[in-house]
Specification:
Elements (H helix, E strand, L loop, with lengths): L6 E3 L3 H14 L25 E10 L2 E9 L12 E9 L8 E11 L3 E2 L2 E4 L4 E5 L5 E2 L2 E2 L5 E8 L8 E7 L15 H4 L16 H7 L14 H5 L29 H4 L3 H4 L22 H4 L2 H17 L7 E12 L2 E11 L19 E10 L13 E4 L26 E3 L2 E6 L5 E2 L3 E2 L5 E11 L14 E4 L4 E4 L18 H8 L1 E2 L4 E2 L60 H4 L10 H4 L10 H7 L4 H9 L36 H6 L3 E3 L19 E3 L1 H10 L1 E3 L5 E3 L1 H9 L4 E3 L9 H4 L2 H7 L3
Helix pairs in contact: 13-15
């Protein structure tokens, strides 16, 4: 029963008289049944698809907050009988003596139809309301201060008739203009990764809720105070370079972000230590500072900005990715002894488009080149025919100590170089192959097309002169990724030669950052491969080697590191593999069996789910991307694991990454290649990379792709485990897991799972 003293509604006097008269007439006859509640008079309603709430007036009298508000639906009809609301009140402690300004939460009250109101809600039955809080604006030893900026967060809670709706108002009691409300982050920057702010945790669809509730006077845990929480929540999982403050922060103030530049104007120990470990700072012992009053003495706004942003901004402003460009001069298939080889010719161009001469007419001898590779593969219509493609390693920055220099072209300890086939007029030609142009799955592909992409890292000085990479003080950067297509006769731009556009750098870049000028994402390898391996370090001291060690008894040690704050990319160094679509496929294709999960002992043949774990851990691009972002891979089964992905959006929203309706299964059903497996792979292999593979089994392409998202579910302990029913369902419809080529069948997934069906089940 609602408390009448706490929930007051004005009633029409005539209605009350009429009700009394009817009750007296009813005494002389049959009582009958109670009638239904009457509807509000006038042009008003109790329902809305879209609810608009306006705060019309706010007053504070004797530390008691009162607000007048109004509501209307999508048809501009006043909405009455709103009974479920929540009100939070806060005030802003101004910045003083180096201490940042910060919100102080003062009071919170609610109304509900079941429990009534904490304060006094008056419904004027015309779409206008007033609410007076019961509690005073006091929180512990924090009292209301009328000189501070005030904030009211008002929310209509979701009911069967009304959607959740929120409105926020900042005001000064003297009605003066707001000059400080800690408007530091534009919530739209969060939406580059997140679907909406409300789905991140709790508290509504506005970032102001986070700042107004996660306050130092309300949170007992200092790590939960905003903005420390905002930083620590992203450390180790941010998809962009850690330290690039402008991923979230603006560079200049605006009308909607009055304090946008606080990140470099007002440094504090609390905020800075959320990213930096100041307890072990080698330059200065920050523990000697009792407060934040002296931070600006060393950390001027200009210094803070430069330390975080100057290198990356300089790289962009100077267009360091285009100091040197690879020009593909020719690419074709040539026949030798009945086999086909890819003959690739390229030149290196300066900014003026002139060919660059190199020592000994061999780019491998150019001391200003740190790394130069071309990735080549054949069969664009079927996602390629060869495992890892045909990589041309002109010169590599990857180590391989198994190389002792005996081949005459590779320095000891470097990955084996590809011999130069010929060189003329500063055009360099390499021969790769033999190229697979026919196999048991795709038939004759000689009339298909091939794909080439580049990876070039070079060194230069302040004047952008190319200098030796051993020269002190040099700068490194990478050429932007490009794509070239060729058929058996030469380079081609024919649409049929190109792989269909399924995902793009732009869609991936919505989270990872997007370089529109070069149509590259801003994803760097070190976003994921951020630590040099300590495993079998003597073999290859790189960030991308996998393997395992043994304990004193000779047992395999399963490597694992918890996620922690690690370097994410290099400031100013724009990745050499930033086109994360077709170039990745040159190696990450169905023909490359998964070895990492075995080499790191995440799964082994005796496991009941061995084949399933290998399938979800497959390096094939479509499986890799799906399983990686949904934490399905065998290498992601540890809590807080360094490889775990905290995907910030709805995993079922295929449009988040896909271009148009390209998530349909029809193409895979028609031309998809089965995923190769090596079920007998030796976990003690020391091959680098893992080239000692023997394909002895396959998984069907459509099943593997869908399995990459649907293979696992949480058990009672919250651990992701294989769901047996999913594989069974796929096998009923032609899918096969870990079988020989002869046992593969045509999958009938598209019969039920059309694009329209997928949209329906994915709520698209």
């Amino acid at each position: 029963m609602m408390n009448a003293n706490r929930f007051k509604t004005r009633l029409c006097y005539a209605t009350l008289v009429a009700a009394c008269s009817m009750s007296m007439v009813a005494c002389s006859g049959d009582d009958g049944k109670d009638g239904e509640d009457g509807q509000p008079g006038g042009n008003v309603t109790t329902t809305a698809e879209v609810l608009t709430v306006t705060i019309d007036k706010t007053t504070i009298t004797d530390n008691i907050l009162s607000i007048d508000f109004s509501a209307e639906n999508e048809l501009a009809i006043p909405v009455v009988k709103i009974a479920a609301i929540k009100i939070n009140a806060a005030q802003l402690l101004p910045q003083i003596e180096g201490e940042r300004s910060q919100w102080q939460k003062l009071a919170s009250e609610t109304c509900s139809p079941e429990k009534g109101c904490d304060g006094n809600l008056v419904d004027n039955m015309d779409g206008s309301y007033s609410y007076t809080m019961d509690a005073a604006l006091v929180a512990g030893d924090i009292s209301h201060n009328g000189d501070f900026t005030q904030r009211v967060l008002f929310k209509v809670l979701e009911t069967d008739q009304l959607p959740a709706t929120e409105v926020i108002t900042d005001f000064n009691l003297d009605s003066s203009e707001i000059t400080d409300n800690r408007s530091i982050i534009d919530g739209s920057s969060c939406l580059s990764c997140h679907d909406d702010i409300a789905s991140i945790k709790h508290g509504g669809d506005n970032i102001e809720n986070c700042a107004s509730c996660h306050t130092s006077n309300y949170m007992s845990d200092a790590s939960k105070v905003w903005p420390v929480l905002a930083h620590t929540a992203h450390i180790g999982i941010t998809p962009q370079a850690l330290g690039n403050c402008t991923t979230c922060h603006a560079k200049e103030v605006s009308e909607t972000e009055l304090q946008a530049t606080n990140w470099n104007l007002v440094p504090t120990r609390e905020t800075c230590s959320s990213c930096h470990d100041m307890t072990s700072n080698p330059v200065y012992d920050h523990s000697t500072q009792p407060d934040n009053g002296s931070c600006l003495t060393c950390h001027s706004p200009e210094n803070t900005y430069d330390v975080h942003m100057s290198k990356s901004e300089k790289a962009v402003e100077e267009d360091q990715r285009n100091i040197v460009n690879i020009s593909l001069e020719d690419a074709k298939l040539v026949e030798q002894d009945g086999e086909h080889f890819a003959e690739i010719s390229f030149a290196l161009l300066d900014r003026q488009g002139q060919r660059i001469a190199v020592a000994n007419n061999n780019p491998a001898d150019a001391d200003w080149i740190k790394n130069l590779q071309l990735y080549v593969n054949w069969g664009t219509s079927v996602d390629f025919t060869t495992s890892r493609g045909y990589s041309i390693f002109v010169k590599s920055n990857k180590k391989d100590i198994t190389q002792d220099g005996s081949d005459g072209i590779t320095p000891a300890g470097e990955r084996a170089r590809t011999p130069l086939h010929k060189s003329e007029d500063n055009v360099f030609t390499y021969l790769m192959g033999p190229v697979v142009t026919q196999d048991q799955f795709s038939g004759d592909l000689l009339g298909d097309a091939g794909f080439i992409t580049n990876r070039l890292i070079y060194c230069f000085d302040g004047a952008q002169n190319l200098v030796s990479c051993d020269q002190a003080g040099h700068t490194k950067n990478a050429e932007a990724n490009k794509r070239w297509f060729f058929d058996k006769d030469g380079l081609t731009e024919a649409p049929e030669a190109k792989r269909p556009l399924i995902v793009s750098n732009k869609t991936c870049g919505s989270c990872h950052g997007y370089d529109e000028f070069n149509d590259n994402s801003e994803l760097a390898c070190r976003n994921c491969h951020s630590r040099k391996t300590e495993i079998n370090k003597e073999l290859a001291d790189t960030t991308c080697f996998s393997g395992h060690d043994h304990d004193e008894l000779g047992e395999h040690i399963r490597p694992f590191e918890e996620r922690a704050m690690v370097a994410k990319g290099k400031p100013g160094f724009l990745s050499s593999t930033a086109d994360i679509v077709d170039p990745c496929l040159a190696c990450h294709n169905p023909n490359t069996p998964p070895t990492q999960a075995i080499r790191e002992m995440h799964t082994k043949p005796s496991d009941w789910d061995y084949v399933e774990q290998l399938t979800v851990s497959h390096p094939d691009h479509k499986v890799w991307m799906h399983s990686l972002h949904t934490n399905q891979r065998a290498t992601q089964d540890r809590e807080n694991g360094v490889r775990n992905i905290e995907f910030p959006a709805d995993k079922a929203n295929c449009y988040r990454c896909h271009e148009g309706d390209t998530f349909g299964v029809e193409r895979l059903t028609a031309v998809g290649r089965p995923l190769a497996l090596d079920l007998d792979y030796n976990p003690d292999s020391r091959a680098h990379p893992a080239t000692d593979i023997t394909v002895d089994a396959y998984t069907s392409p459509v099943s593997a792709t869908c399995y990459a998202c649907h293979a696992k579910q949480e058990d009672a302990d919250g651990k992701m485990v294989i769901n047996k029913a999913v594989r069974a369902h796929m096998e009923q419809n032609g899918g096969r897991f870990g079988v020989t080529a002869n046992e593969l069948q045509v999958e009938s997934c598209a019969v039920c799972h059309s694009v329209d069906n997928l949209k329906k089940v994915h709520n698209l």
